[in-house]
Amino acid sequence: MHHPLFEERSGRAAAEQVRQSLEFALQAASQAEKRLREGIEALPQGIVFLDEEGRYILWNEKYAEIYSRSADLLKPGVKLIDALRTGLERGDYPDATGREEEWLAERLERLMEPGTRHEQWLSNGRCIMIEERKIEGCGTIGIRVDITDLKQKEENYRLLFERNPLPMLVYDAKSGLIRSANEAASAFFGYSQDQLAGLPASVLFPEVLKSQAREMLAADHSDTDNCWKMLRRDGSSIEAVITTRLSQLESYAETIVSIFDITERRRIEQQLTHMARHDELTGLANRAFCREHLHEALDNAGPGDTVTIALVDLDHFKAINETYGYRFGDSLLTEAASRMLKEIPPDTLLSRIGGDEFAIVFRHSSITQAELVAKAIIGTLSEPFFVCGHVIHIGATIGLASSPRDSRDAETLARYADLALYTAKGEQRGTCRSFETQMNTAAQEKSQLEKDLRVGLRQGELEVHYQPLVNLSTGEIECYEALLRWNHPTRGLVPPDVFVQIAEEMGLIDQIGRFVLHQACTDAIGWPRHVKVAVNVSPLQFRSGNLLSTVINALSSSGLSADRLELEITEAVLMEQGPRPAAIIRNLRAFGIGISLDDFGTGYSSLSYLLNYPFTKIKIDKSFIRNLHNEASSRAVIRAVIGLGRSLGLTVAAEGVENEIERDYLREEGCTQGQGYLFGKPKPPGGLIALHSRAA
Question: Does 224 have pLDDT greater than 80?
Fold first, then answer.
């Protein structure tokens, strides 16, 4: 018989052994679960374990990342079908929209009988490949793979193949059959896409090429210089370039075949070549072709041959373009080109080298013949144009240069023709001029003058001189006109009519205008309080839009009151299109600044301008003063202008008064002010003191 104490000890030992075994088993299970988790976390796919009832047991981080919008539903014990139902309510599955219950039933069916793959689109635009497998007695294991990038590549490939304008085929090298073809291939060969699919590729080649074609289609081939003869369904043949690229598609090796119709390519190449050398609008040769042709003509010219280039510039074309629009201008250019083509000899090249600029290269014409053609072109372009129901008048100015008389170099010859054109435009539009040596000298002198002007402006060579405007009744000086002078270190004083135009062409007129305004206002501070200062303003200063701020800055920095400043403008300012000039003039007057209309009587619409703008003074142009002794019409104009100014309450000033007879006549007619050498020549600021004393 066992002692009770012994039995008790034996029972405790057995219990301890069971406890230790259970603890060991739990540790082993925990370790196994840890290793399982580590293993599935290391996988790039989303992994999920479901029990036999479809409840969540375990999943990895990738799975939670894929279903990030439903991550809050991922809890052990939650049924997958319940999570899916909540996801449907949230709109996580766009494919289920409008058929939620049907979609859920299909998904549940796949879950209960797994084994096949299917795709699932999520609301974030991702596409997930799902594969689920039953594990006997352990539920279901599911794999989720994000195949969005793969789907995009497939779609790109499909679009690239199906919508490619080039005929393309997919060729099975093993069977020799065409697997598929795009629409372009169907149209190209005359078969439907279904007819091409499954067709032996050899059918597309003549018998003599079948063997070579089979080798070519089974290899990477990119020989674009080799043409293949191919057959259409109707039996007609074509020349084509074929390129192939080997690939692997599902269970067979494929060849992507691209077919280029050489006929079309050659047509396009010829078209591109033509476009590169011709003007799209008129069909004429373009600048590049003209330059090439001129070089060739000079290189191939014989000892007695004359080569002439004529540059044609259409007159008034810019204004017509701005008035009627570019379509109208294009029609005009086309008609002008057509007229010129009718006037030139057969072996002569007409080119359009710019907007409204044309060039003509004569190869076998004398200088005289070229000049006669140029005059004929001016004549035909002077005839009225009928465009879109409008009658338009333009015209043309032409400059010519010839080889070997002027130069044998193509670039030099073109430059000389341009100088001749520039001279003709400056002298009289609607004419033609041949190059003369002095034109080049003048151009070089102008170029040097441009360089000197930049230096002079930087080094302070520009000065402001002043010419008085005198009250004709009292003889008192009432105003000085600021006149710009350039004291060139070697040329001496350069006249404004020489360098102001150059400054405008160089874009320096704004900078020079600021200088004159600031200097004139600063100098005027030292004059008697009743003496004003008048400053001429260029149309380009109005166009830039900075004039108002420039004037205000000049007054502020000098301390001159606004009522002592007059701005002289010409009709050219008022002819600018748009509301800007009028707005600027009215703003200037609002500050108390006087506005004077210079050269009155020489424009087209001076009377209407007086009514529409707030002028304070009009200046009678000196041409009328110069002729008042000899021409009754000049005296009539002077009398009319003075009467008009008086009736409008304007000061009337006469320019160019050089003798007492002119002064007395103007005074008797009631002219307010006079300006001219009789009262004083333009002087620097320091020379005005004596002038003040003499006037007093």
Answer: no
